[in-house]
Amino acid sequence: MEFEVSYTLDDEQQFWDELDDILSVRCKSPGLIDQALRAFLRFTSTYREEYLGSEFELTRCSCKLLDSSLFRDNEDYVRRQIVYGLLQEDSGNVLHVITAFLFVDGRRKDDTFELMGQEGCFPRLVELIRSCRDDDGWLHRRLLELLYEMSRIQRIRAGDLCCVDDAFVAYLFQIIEELSDDVNDPYHYPVIRVLLVLNEQYMVCAHEPGHGEPGGALLTNRVIKIISLHGSAYKTFGENIILLLNRETEMSLQLLTLKLLYLLFTTHATHEYFYTNDLRVLVDVMIRNLLDLPDESESLRHTYLRVLYPLLAHTQLRHPPHYKREEILKLLNVLSVVPSAHFQPLDETTARLVTRCRKVPWLKEEEIPSQGLLGISHGSAAQSTLSVTEVAGTTEKPGTMMPSRTDRRQMDDERARANGVDIGGEGAYQQQQQPRGTNGSNGNGGGHGQQLAYSQWGLNGKSPSEDSGSSRWNFS
Description:
Helix 17 (276-292) runs antiparallel to helix 18 (298-314) and helix 18 (298-314) runs parallel beside helix 20. The chain has 25 helices and no strands. It has helices spanning 12-23, 30-46, 48-51, 55-67, 69-72, 75-88, 92-108, 111-118, 121-132, 137-152, 158-161, 166-178, 188-206, 222-230, 235-247, 251-266, 276-292, 298-314, 325-335, 348-358, 385-393, 405-418, 426-432, 454-457, 464-467.
């Protein structure tokens, strides 16, 4: 069977009709499957700019292949051949079609991203990201998205991570700086997510016996290294990850952000990477999120508390005037509440982490002068090796949304109303509610007998810069 056919198309409908014909063929041997795939890639890449010029059209094209008999009858073989195409092809139009398919297929089935990792696609994606930004920004963004998706569901081999050098990481930071005037630019979050997932891969690799660079040397965390050496040139990244933590509701991305914050606050050279006002915003976000987590979200609560201690003890916040000291103490009291009918028994790890936070000198009743903390470094006794390992190993399935105590109470209330139950105090509760963040979900930390509204605390949902007249950070 020969697929060397030239096409002359009159309109878009004819393009889709011809594509259906190519994909409807039944192939019973690897040779025929390869011919059909070559015909598919040749046809779609030839008319990519004319008929596949948008993300929607490329996704539609990918879905046609996924739904075709060619794919359904030979799923594993076709997927593997397209992965090989990513490793070998250099044509921009062909790469558009290949990356669109792998992204759609991978989001539908993790096996695709795992196969990409097994076949060595990580170094290839790094190579393509280095080379194609100036030529094709759209393809560059899709390559970043693929790198992120395949890296967040599996451990990347140490040998593959070695292809990431200082220049590549600095290049990603520089992209963010160039786009600093527009936080809605489509490059912003794909680049930030890649840096976050690279940091996680370095953390995991550092705590795996026998993993490192050739020769046995430990693998350098190049994300932390670049911030340590050149952090003052890449402040926009720091501003954006705090904004991301405030807005993002996906747990896996929250954990990625918290892992980087943990390392930044426990590494001496990066203690003061963030602007002081941004750190105050972060305190507000962490108070709100810790109050809003339901009782069963222990791993996420533990990670927040592990980040909270070095945030308060090591950064500029250790210097007077101490930001929201009373509110932080109230938070710690809430988290260590005596078990009752409204609360589950306090778990041992939460109790230990709350006690650690209370030992921050400026949170004690008799404050210790802040100069006493100037000597704290990454290896101090205040930080346990166990905490580093626990933070590195905390994971969550991609796509899982961050749980909310407030949202759960609202669901319980709606369920009660549906059953004809009168909910006492409902009006007062609704008056207390405040917007949780720019994503529109709620989170005042109330529910289960707490009734700790922001108005009680002086936490009105505004950031420090808003209180001082600036409108840069907006929680409403």
